[in-house]
Specification:
- The protein is an alpha+beta fold and about 475 residues long.
- It contains 10 helices and 26 strands.
- It is globular and about 75 Å long.
């Protein structure tokens, strides 16, 4: 049964509506707060939380409920209120469902998931007790050991919600890995994939045949020594510690869908007049003809696209780094993560961006959705001449149009182009940047007195030969 229940309502949950929802456990239930009042909790007689309710979010971006929940939301703007039940307590899950049902009934809207919507009656919780501290101290963490924090996410898309962001932060501050457990059929938001990092953090998928496996690598896992860890193959040795790969992970179905993936880095001079997000918007417009739809500091993205407001948030948080998620509209699925940091070199923006395309995608294929490959040089030139581009890598991937990450093997992307910014070109000795071992020489971007260089990679997008060309180019540029 789900641990998260969400109310999607047309009206703002005012204090009286929230109080009516909180009384789903009866008037004798204790109410507490966490996070300077941002989280309200229904507690048992010992003060331990049964249900934790996040502050409502005003969502002004169309398509987020559909993308993350598969649900139909009221017209934007609408209110998104999450309640998380304590793991393993059936009454807590009923409380969360009744809370969301009461909000939807009072304010107009619906509760997700549909089968979690309870009656409006008070839920009986006499004698119910929950896990003691410290696991219950962090609402998003279900299991806490000396090595990892474990989060159970029974949602169609495991997204970088405020809950999960708090769990990442708490685990990092404690020096622990974060392991996310989800059921079969769930997918992962690219925002979460990019944040998982390395061992022992993992995305763990429940599986009928193999029990559990890593959704990004396919390694079969078992709970051992206080965390999920790979199972050793019977023929493994110290020199070759083989790990079995889940059968489900290896079931590859090429649907013809593709993703155009771009990773680029910009370094801006520190200036009070600096507006961030302009480079990302420029690329988005060049490749789709429209700006991004929305952005936020977690998922769902709640705010209409605005570089100025994004800059204000980053400025308020400086000198601490700031992370954003940026989303596209329903006609052109896309998702970007942006990390902004202040360094000695200036203000750095690191962007990871993916656009999704349906089957038959190609340049000039005459069928399906056309990939805007011809627009890539113009997008690169705009970044290089107006947004202080350092470098950019463009790849084509066999991956889902909705840009969600499935728990199956998708394979690496194939490099289509690499771009070197003007400052990096100028810093290289002689004409190394202009004369490469590749058959096709670089294209000059911007003024010839201070050019950036665009390197088309001749690898066939249908195979992995592009990586050989890319590695050869990197060795040449480094002088190796």
């Amino acid at each position: 049964m789900t641990k998260d229940v969400i109310a999607l309502t047309s009206k703002m949950p005012d204090p009286w509506a929230v109080l009516a929802g909180l009384l789903s456990g009866g008037p004798d239930k204790l109410v507490g707060t966490r996070g300077e009042g941002a989280v309200i909790q229904l507690c048992d007689p010992e003060g331990r939380p049964l249900v934790s309710v996040e502050a409502p979010l005003l969502v002004s971006v169309e398509g987020e409920a559909e993308r993350l929940l598969g649900a139909t939301a009221p017209p934007v703007p609408y209110w998104w209120t999450e309640a998380r039940a304590t793991t393993g307590v059936a009454e807590a899950e009923q409380l969360a469902g009744t809370f969301a049902t009461r909000l939807a009934s009072l304010l107009g809207g619906s509760a997700w998931p549909p089968d979690a919507a309870g009656s409006l009656a008070v839920v009986k919780t006499d004698g119910v007790s929950v896990a003691p501290e410290p696991a219950a101290a962090q609402p998003a963490i279900d299991v806490l050991t000396e090595r990892v924090a474990v989060v159970i996410q029974d949602r169609p898309v495991v997204a970088m919600t405020a809950w999960l962001s708090d769990a990442f932060r708490a685990a990092a501050e404690a020096g622990l890995g974060l392991q996310i457990v989800s059921p079969a059929g769930a997918t992962l938001s690219p925002a979460v994939r990019d944040a998982l990092g390395g061992w022992p953090s993992r995305w763990i998928v429940q599986d009928e045949r193999d029990g559990y496996y890593d959704g990004l690598t396919g390694a079969v896992l078992r709970w051992q020594d206080g965390m999920f860890a790979p199972v050793a193959s019977p023929d493994a040795t110290e020199d070759d510690p083989r790990t079995p790969v889940a059968a489900t992970f290896q079931e590859v179905h090429d649907t013809g869908e593709r993703q155009l993936a771009l990773t680029f880095r910009m370094v801006h001079p520190a200036d009070d007049r600096l507006v961030l997000g302009g480079g990302l918007e420029t690329v988005w417009r060049e490749l789709t003809g429209a700006p991004p739809a929305g952005w936020g500091t977690s998922e769902p993205a709640t705010l209409p696209w605005s570089p100025r407001r994004l800059t204000d948030v980053a400025h308020e948080r400086a000198p601490e780094p700031t992370w954003f998620v940026v989303v596209g509209n329903r006609d052109r699925p896309a998702l970007a993560t942006v990390r902004i940091t202040r360094t000695e070199a200036g203000v750095e923006e690191h962007v990871t961006l993916a656009f999704g395309y349906g089957s038959g995608s190609g340049s000039g294929s005459g069928s399906g959705e056309e990939l805007p490959l011809d627009a890539l040089p113009a997008a690169a030139e705009a970044l290089a001449t107006r947004h202080h581009l350092q470098s950019m890598l463009v790849q084509l991937r066999k991956a889902r149009r909705d840009v969600a990450v499935p728990p199956r093997f998708e394979g690496p992307g194939v490099p289509l182009a690499f771009v070197l910014g003007a400052e990096e070109v100028r810093a290289m000795p002689g004409d190394r940047a202009r004369r490469t071992p590749l058959a096709e020489q670089p294209v000059t971007l911007g003024p010839r007195t201070r050019p950036a260089l665009y390197y088309p990679l001749p690898g066939d997008p249908s195979d992995l030969s592009g990586w050989q060309d890319f590695e050869q180019l990197m060795r040449h540029l480094k002088g190796a």
